[in-house]
Specification:
heterodimer, A: mainly alpha, two-stranded antiparallel ribbon, 3% strand, B: Nuclear Transport Factor 2, Chain: A, five-stranded antiparallel β-sheet, 5 strands, 58% helix
Chain lengths: 272, 219
C-alpha cells in the first residue's frame, strides 16, 4: 500500500539520523539560482510589499476549521536535547547506517518484511492492553486475535496472516495517558532511543512489561535481548535509509524537524 | 514518512496546471479541471512510453509552476517574521528565489518511482471554502495498486490575485509545506537572521544538486 503511514514504526529511527553535519557544511559552490525566468504569474512586488504589512501571514486563514488541538511540548532542556540529537546522529552515521546498508544488501526484502512482522506481532499485547484502557474493547479484540493467529498460523508472526482480515490498530500506553489528559511534560531527546517526553519515557518502561521477549530467562538472556533489539532496529532502518537521508537533506534545522514530527505524532495519536 | 509526505506534496502540486485565464473560475474548479487533465496526461504517457523521472520532471516544471505562488508561500512560511522582514523587499525577493530553487531541487532529488504517478486514478474535489482572498479546496485522490484502492486527502490553499487563484500551500494528512518549514525558518531567523537563512537554503540546494550530479555520473 503506497500511502500507508506508520509513524510509530518510523519515529524511533529518527533518533539516529539527525544532527547530520549537512546544515552547517560550508559550500564553495555558487548559489543555484535559476537564471531562466519562471513563466509563472508573480504579483507586482512593490504593490504586494505595500500590502504585506497589513496582512497577518502568521495566522492561517483556515485555522478555525481545524478541529484537533495541536500538541506543543515545552523544551526547557533544548541545549542538552540538541547535544543528544547530535550524538545520536553521529551514531547513526558511523554505526547504524552502514550496518543497515550491509544487512539490506544480503538479506532479501521478503525476509526483512517477515522479521518486521514478527517484531510488530510482539507489540500486540501493548495494543491489546492500551485498547482496553482506552475503553476500546473491539480494538483490543482485534489485537488479541491478530496476536494468536499470527503467532501460530503466521509462524511466530513472520507472516501477517491476520492482516488479510484485520489490519493492526496500533495503540500505545503513551497514547492512553494522553487520552486521560496526563500532561506530557518537557520534550526529551534520549541517548540512543531518541525523541520522547517524561510521560512517553514512563510509558515505554511500562510497555516493557508487556513485551513477551522481555520475559526471556537464562544465563544469556541479556545478551539475547540486546541482540534482538539491535536486530530489530537494524531491520527497520534497512527499509528507511533513503527516507532518512532525504529527510536530513530537506531539513534546515533537524532538531526542529524532529521535534515537530514528534509533536504531530502525539497530536494524531490523541485524536485517534 | 516526512520525506514521503514532502514527495507527495510535490506530486499533488503537480496535479494543478495552468491558472485560469479570462473569466473567473472558482478555486475548486481550477483544481478539479487541472487535476483531471494531469491524471489523463499521466495515464496517456504511461500507456505509450515509460514515465521516467526525466519526463515527470519536465511535466512538473512546465505545468506546476504557473499555478504556484512562491512569494505568498515564502511570506506564509516566514509567519510572524514576515512583518519584521516584509519591508526588506530585496531580502524577501531573494529569499523567495532561493526557497523556490530549494523546493524545486527537493522535488528532483526525492521524486518517488513512477508507480505512484501511474496508479493515480482520480482526484475529486470534496469541499471548497473561500475566506476573503484565501481559499481552501479539499480533495480526495484515488490511487489503485494491485487491486487495492487507497484514498488520500489533500488540501490545497489558494490565494486570489485579481481573477486568478494560485496555490500557496497544500497539506497531506496535516503536513503542509508552510507548516513543515515555518518552525525551521523561525529557528534560523531567531538565532541568526535572514542572511543566514538564505545562505542555508543555498547550501542545502547546492548539496542536493551535487548529490544528484554524482548519482548521474555513477549510474
Amino acid at each position: 500500500m503506497i500511502f500507508r503511514v506508520r509513524p510509530i514504526l518510523f519515529l524511533p529511527l529518527l533518533i539516529f539520523f539527525l544532527a547530520l553535519p549537512s546544515a552547517s557544511v560550508p559550500t564553495q559552490e555558487p548559489p543555484v539560482l535559476s537564471t531562466k525566468k519562471s513563466p509563472s504569474f508573480q504579483p507586482d512586488i512593490s504593490e504586494a510589499s505595500a500590502a504585506d504589512s497589513e496582512i497577518d501571514y502568521a495566522t492561517d486563514p483556515f485555522a478555525e476549521e481545524v478541529s484537533e488541538e495541536k500538541v506543543r511540548l515545552s523544551d526547557p532542556l533544548e541545549p542538552v536535547n540538541r547535544l543528544f540529537l547530535k550524538i545520536n546522529g553521529v551514531l547513526y552515521l558511523i554505526v547504524m547506517r552502514p550496518a543497515a546498508s550491509g544487512y539490506r544488501a544480503v538479506v532479501p526484502k521478503p525476509i526483512r518484511t517477515g522479521i518486521r512482522n514478527g517484531f510488530h506481532n510482539l507489540e500486540e499485547p501493548i495494543h491489546f492492553v492500551s485498547s482496553l484502557l482506552q475503553g476500546k474493547p473491539r480494538d483490543a479484540g482485534v489485537a488479541l486475535g491478530r496476536f494468536f493467529v499470527n503467532s501460530t498460523v503466521g509462524i511466530a508472526g513472520f507472516f501477517d496472516v491476520a492482516g488479510k482480515h484485520r489490519k493492526a490498530i496500533d495503540r500505545s500506553l503513551d497514547q492512553t495517558f494522553a487520552k486521560a489528559d496526563v500532561p506530557p511534560g518537557p520534550y526529551l531527546v534520549l541517548p540512543i532511543s531518541g525523541p520522547s517526553t517524561v510521560r512517553g519515557s514512563l510509558a515505554s518502561v511500562a510497555e516493557g512489561f508487556l513485551q513477551p521477549i522481555n520475559y526471556l530467562s537464562g544465563d544469556d538472556s541479556e545478551e539475547i535481548l540486546t541482540g534482538l533489539y539491535a536486530g530489530k532496529t537494524v531491520n527497520e532502518v534497512s527499509f528507511r535509509i533513503e527516507e532518512i537521508d532525504s529527510l536530513s537533506k530537506s531539513s534546515l534545522d533537524p532538531y526542529v524537524t524532529v521535534k515537530e514530527y514528534y509533536e504531530r505524532k502525539l497530536t494524531k495519536e490523541k485524536g485517534r | 514518512m516526512h520525506q514521503r509526505r514532502i514527495v507527495l506534496l510535490f506530486l499533488f502540486l503537480f496535479l494543478a496546471t495552468a491558472p485560469s485565464r479570462g473569466a473567473e473560475t472558482s478555486p475548486g474548479a481550477i483544481i478539479e479541471q487541472n487535476a483531471a487533465k494531469a491524471v489523463a496526461a499521466i495515464q496517456k504517457r504511461s500507456q505509450h512510453s515509460s514515465l521516467d523521472v526525466g519526463a515527470i520532471r519536465t511535466i512538473f516544471i512546465e505545468t506546476m509552476e504557473p499555478l504556484f505562488d512562491y512569494r505568498e508561500m515564502t511570506l506564509r512560511t516566514l509567519g510572524r517574521y514576515a512583518r519584521k522582514y516584509g519591508k526588506d523587499r530585496k531580502g524577501i525577493e531573494e529569499l523567495t528565489g532561493v526557497f523556490r530553487e530549494f523546493l524545486r531541487q527537493l522535488f528532483r532529488t526525492t521524486l518517488l518511482p513512477k508507480t505512484e504517478f501511474e496508479h493515480l486514478k482520480e482526484v475529486r474535489v470534496t469541499d471548497e471554502l473561500i475566506k476573503g482572498r484565501y481559499a481552501r479546496v479539499k480533495t480526495q485522490s484515488i490511487v489503485e495498486t494491485s487491486g487495492e484502492t487507497s484514498v488520500l486527502d489533500v488540501n490545497y490553499m489558494l490565494v486570489r490575485h485579481g481573477k486568478t487563484w494560485q496555490i500557496y500551500d497544500m497539506e497531506i494528512d496535516g503536513y503542509g509545506i508552510v507548516g513543515s518549514y515555518r518552525s525551521q525558518f523561525a529557528s534560523v531567523l531567531k538565532n541568526h537572521g535572514l542572511k543566514d537563512l538564505i545562505q542555508r537554503l543555498r547550501e542545502k540546494t547546492a548539496e542536493m544538486k551535487r548529490e544528484e550530479t554524482s548519482k548521474k555520473k555513477t549510474s
